[in-house]
Design brief:
The structure is a homodimer of 138-residue chains. Chain A is mainly α and 138 residues long. The first copy, chain A, has six helices and two strands, in the order ααββαααα. Helices cover 62% and strands 3% of the residues of chain A. Chain A binds a DNA duplex (30 and 30 nucleotides) through helix 2.
Chain lengths: 138, 138
DNA sequence: TCTTGATGCTCTAGTGACTAGAGGCCCTAC
DNA sequence: GTAGGGCCTCTAGTCACTAGAGCATCAAGA
């Protein structure tokens, strides 16, 4: 049996976050000891590990709820799990594409100040004027 | 003179968002007409354009507030504007790096289901088990 | 056994950057 | 004059937490 603090240390999820996950129904309510403190078993540990990993992979809590709801009964739901994973991959790729455009735009803006000399505050002008941008962004 | 709706159409910033920017002190309070409706001039349009572009580039409202505060008096502040832009660039590059790790991880997970056959729900197992990951992420 | 300090509990409120809705006033075109 | 769109303020909700108040409980040492 683990206390919430031990669970926190083991998984790297902060204590208030664990309570928050319980509150929104993502983590099942654990048993309590005589003093009303939460006591978790291995299943609680596993569930929280699953959530942590999926969060690190950028899944929303909504996605994770869906994935965990599926976990019990496999079969067809496998397709659903795969769909969620793939849609998340597409999402991540899209974000990368957009961020790359932003990076090149920011590089351009930063170079305006390279010398540190005279008309240097083109940085502010460039930020204010989208028409100077090379490509699309936003 | 523009109404808030005209400003919204011209800049692509939604009406409630414009009011929100005003509320938090990012946009100066515009004049009002006899019926208490906001009326903007070209300076309001420019300010909102600046904010919109900077937001599209991923700057926080806090950053933008700093950049706009600097706008009046150039000189030394140029260095500050450049610092903010460069730190934003570093930030974006870092996010790209992390997302690329996530993408490769998600690709690996998705491939577990390629056949659509038998032991397909390795997707859920993989999501739950960080030790299967190739590299670092999160 | 007593004490002390860490850990735990619940509850409320705050974060950033908006978004949605209620309930009402104003403006413009016909 | 009237219809319908736009505008006003205010409150509350979103996501995924985070911080703090004020109190209870637990474990280890004296």
């Amino acid at each position: 049996m683990f206390s919430i603090g031990q669970l926190s240390k083991a998984t790297g999820v902060k204590v208030p976050t664990i309570r928050y996950y319980e509150e929104i129904g993502l983590l099942p309510q654990p048993g309590r000891n005589a003093g009303n403190q939460r006591r978790y078993g291995q299943d609680g540990m596993d569930a929280l590990g699953f959530i942590k990993h999926a969060r690190d992979l950028g899944f929303s809590l909504e996605d994770i709820k869906a994935l965990m709801g599926l976990d019990g009964h496999l079969g067809d739901d496998c397709a659903e799990a795969d769909r969620i994973a793939r849609s998340q991959l597409a999402n991540v790729r899209d974000r990368i594409r957009k961020l790359e455009q932003l990076a090149s735009e920011l590089e351009r803006i930063s170079h305006l100040c390279d010398g540190g000399n005279g008309g240097c505050c083109k940085v502010l002008t460039a930020l204010g004027d989208h028409s100077q941008c090379a490509g699309e962004h936003g």
